[in-house]
C-alpha cells in the first residue's frame, strides 16, 4: 500500500483538499476588490480633538486676560504658564479638527485615516 500524501504545513491529507479550476477567460480580478469601502469616521478622536480645542482656546483667553491685567494684578508670572499650556493643548485639537473638517467636505488629500483612532 502506498502512503498517502499530506500537506506538510497543515497536516491535511491531499485527498481531502477540494480544489476548483480557475476560469481561463478571466484575468484573475473581480470587481469587488476595487470597490472603495465607506470611510470609517473616528468619532472618539474627533470628540477628543474638540475637547482639546475648546480647553486650549479657554486657557489662551484666560492667559491673555491675565497678561493684560484684566483679571488680576498677578502679572506675567501667572499668565505665561497658562498661555503655554493653552497653546500646547490648542494646537493638536485645532490640527485634528481641521483634518476632520476637510475630510468631511471631501477635499482632495484629506481623509479620516489621517486622524489617529483609539478603537484599536
Automatic annotation (TrEMBL):
A Gene Ontology biological process term: axonal transport
Function: Involved in trafficking and recycling of synaptic vesicles.
Main location: cytoplasm
Domain of life: Eukaryota
Family that this chain belongs to: Belongs to the TMEM134/TMEM230 family.
Keywords associated with the record: Cytoplasmic vesicle, Endosome, Golgi apparatus, Membrane, Synapse, Transmembrane, Transmembrane helix
Protein name listed in UniProt: Transmembrane protein 230
Source organism: Ailuropoda melanoleuca
GO cellular component, one term: recycling endosome
InterPro entries, alphabetized: TMEM230, TMEM_230/134
Record-linked PANTHER family: C20ORF30 PROTEIN, TRANSMEMBRANE PROTEIN 230
Localization of this protein: Cytoplasmic vesicle, Autophagosome; Cytoplasmic vesicle, Secretory vesicle, Synaptic vesicle; Early endosome; Golgi apparatus, trans-Golgi network
Topology within the bilayer: Multi-pass membrane protein
Sequence intervals crossing the membrane: 45-71, 83-104
Amino acid at each position: 500500500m502506498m502512503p498517502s500524501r499530506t500537506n506538510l504545513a497543515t497536516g491535511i491529507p491531499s485527498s481531502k483538499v477540494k480544489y476548483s479550476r480557475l476560469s481561463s477567460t478571466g484575468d484573475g480580478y473581480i470587481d469587488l476588490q476595487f470597490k472603495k469601502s465607506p470611510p470609517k469616521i473616528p468619532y472618539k478622536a474627533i470628540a477628543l480633538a474638540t475637547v482639546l480645542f475648546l480647553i486650549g482656546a479657554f486657557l489662551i483667553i484666560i492667559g491673555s486676560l491675565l497678561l493684560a491685567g484684566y483679571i488680576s494684578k498677578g502679572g506675567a508670572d501667572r499668565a505665561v504658564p497658562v498661555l503655554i499650556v493653552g497653546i500646547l493643548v490648542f494646537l493638536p485639537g485645532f490640527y485634528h479638527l481641521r483634518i476632520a473638517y476637510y475630510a468631511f467636505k471631501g477635499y482632495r488629500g484629506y481623509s479620516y485615516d489621517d486622524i489617529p483612532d483609539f478603537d484599536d
